[in-house]
């Protein structure tokens, strides 16, 4: 296959996967409530309800540069629950909200993913966010109540720990 055929082939495959994946970023992750863990979350977000089909944060479609030095190349996916919170400025993300930030190298290769998943009761002092850092292949590098993540994101605790845009009216 030549290059453009290969690209079309991939586009069709992704479209079919997105279309046939029924929940398309809407539902809460099934069965995670008891024992949330990063491996389970990876299965969910890559196989059961593939995050590549999730919407973007409005105004942050496609790839863009981080506001923090050294200006990493990012792509942000949020599930429908999170999108509803952003669009309707609901002040707080509900249980099951999922935000996935991909970080790319300068050669346009996926290098890391940082993830926030809202799990009711997991960490009430930290608005119940479960924090994960994955390698590009899903290797779990950090997970849970990760001090490093929280110490920086706490600066926007009044925006439910989220930097990208205001979720308040
Ligand atoms: C030094 C500060 C800092 C640290 C440490 C940090 N972040 Fe962030 N994070 C940001 C900023 C700023 C953004 C907004 C996007 C941008 O400009 O990079 C962000 C964006 C995000 C987003 C998209 C939602 C949002 O808040 O806008 C997720 C998900 C995320 N970070 C997860 C994590 C995880 C998981 C960790 C720990 C492994 C982490 N972050 C550590 C500053 C930080």
Automatic annotation (TrEMBL):
- Which protein, by its recorded name, is this? Putative cytochrome c like protein
Task: Give the organism the record lists.
Answer: Kuenenia stuttgartiensis
Xref: InterPro entries: Cytochrome_P460, Cytochrome_P460_sp
Q: Where is the Cytochrome P460 domain?
A: 71-164
Q: Which CDD domains match?
A: cyt_P460_fam (cd20716)
Q: Where are the transmembrane segments?
A: none
């Amino acid at each position: 296959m030549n290059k453009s055929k290969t690209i079309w082939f991939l586009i069709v495959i992704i479209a079919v996967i997105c279309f046939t994946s029924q929940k398309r970023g809407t539902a809460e992750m099934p069965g995670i409530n008891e024992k949330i863990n990063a491996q389970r979350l990876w299965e969910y977000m890559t196989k059961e309800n593939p995050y590549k089909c999730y919407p973007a944060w409005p105004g942050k479609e496609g790839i863009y540069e981080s506001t923090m030095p050294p200006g990493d190349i990012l792509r942000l996916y949020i599930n429908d629950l999170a999108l509803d919170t952003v669009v309707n400025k609901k002040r707080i993300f509900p249980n099951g909200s999922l935000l996935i930030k991909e970080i790319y190298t300068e050669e346009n290769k996926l290098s890391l993913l940082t993830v926030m998943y809202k799990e009711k009761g997991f960490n009430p002092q930290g608005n119940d966010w479960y924090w994960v850092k994955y390698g590009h292949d899903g290797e779990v590098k950090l997970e849970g109540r990760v001090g490093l993540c929280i110490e920086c994101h706490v600066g926007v605790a009044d925006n439910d720990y989220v930097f990208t845009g205001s979720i308040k009216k």
